[in-house]
Amino acid sequence: MRGISPAVKHILIINVLFWIGTLSIGANGTLFNNLFAYNFVLNDLFKPWQVITHMFMHASYVPTGDGGQTIYFQHILFNMFGLWMFGTPVERFLGLKKFVFFYISAGLGALLLHAGYDYIQFQDSLSQLINAGYEKEAIFDVISEGRYMVAWENVLNPQDLRQLAGNYGSVLVGASGALMGVLVAFGVLFPNSELMLIFLPIPIKAKYFIPGIILMDLFSMLTGYSLFSPSNTAYLAHLGGALFGFIMIWYWKKNSFNQHRWD
Length: 263
Description:
By secondary structure, the protein is mostly helical.
């Protein structure tokens, strides 16, 4: 693969292999999602390695109108295109080892913010039900089936109860969080590079373009209105990756890359 840096090439290959595995092994991607996607930490499906492997997984199927499923390739296509486009110049600037550390750290930062918020939200609702006299084991038995008891509406409103069951069964996949960190690094390192949106072919400098992407994610998270992404996009994970990416690249730039290069 010419025109692509070594770490980016191998990360891209790993992502594609995971995606093909999801399509090829097990029914409708269930086996790979159970093993390698990030499952909620209190769910029996959670495994420690998922904090890493989830960032190499991507959505592989989407429901169709007739109740079936069809292969979904847009998620991995756009993420891998972004990784190649922005990751290659960032890796060439940072060096291979530092780039890999940066990429994984941004992905972990994305997970930390997303999963941490879900966990706090879940524990708050769970505590209210327990304090109202419901047993923890019985609550878990019900929400593990993706539902809740109508009687619980005396304690929590239906929206919070749906969120309780939704958090327990939530699954996080994708390189988007790590990619957002790479986008931010590109914007800090190459602020005057001109970029263009497909639907808006006007050159925009990276120092304006990338904050614009982050603001759109923030808008979608706060309003629930999706501008360009699917409605189930983990916007908080995007923002977490961007935040951790900015902190790292800002620290490294401030303290001189030449003094702290790893290779």
